[in-house]
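Could you show me some protein's one-letter sequence and the numbers that encode its backbone in two labelled lines?

___
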Amino acid sequence: MTDFSKAPTSFFVPTTDGDISKTFYAEVLGLELVEDTQFAVVFKLADSELRLSKVSDFKPFPWTVLDFQVDDISVAMKGLRDQGVKFQHYNEMGQDEDGVWVAPGGTTQIAWFKDPDGNVLSVSQRGK
């Protein structure tokens, strides 16, 4: 049987405008562009790839579709804010004034933002 736990992975996120999304993921998030075809814009992610699938229409999910685990959430958020990213505030989550939610147990911190298509992305600092 194939050991899928060791297989390279691809993550698919839809986009209705490949050019705008390509700019956001490359210039704002700093991801390395691999290719741009009529079907997808592809970026390198550590040991995997992110494929922005070009679609004519879709409705973004209201939950996180992609999380970037960072060493320091404050530094990551500042860098994103400097690029014009606005963080989401969800009343029911009990986030702090910066938009950071601390998971039960107090070791994982998460902040959410959206890409140009409205896909919910996040940065997280995992407990140490």
User: Anything to note?
Assistant: The first strand starts at residue 9 and ends at 15.
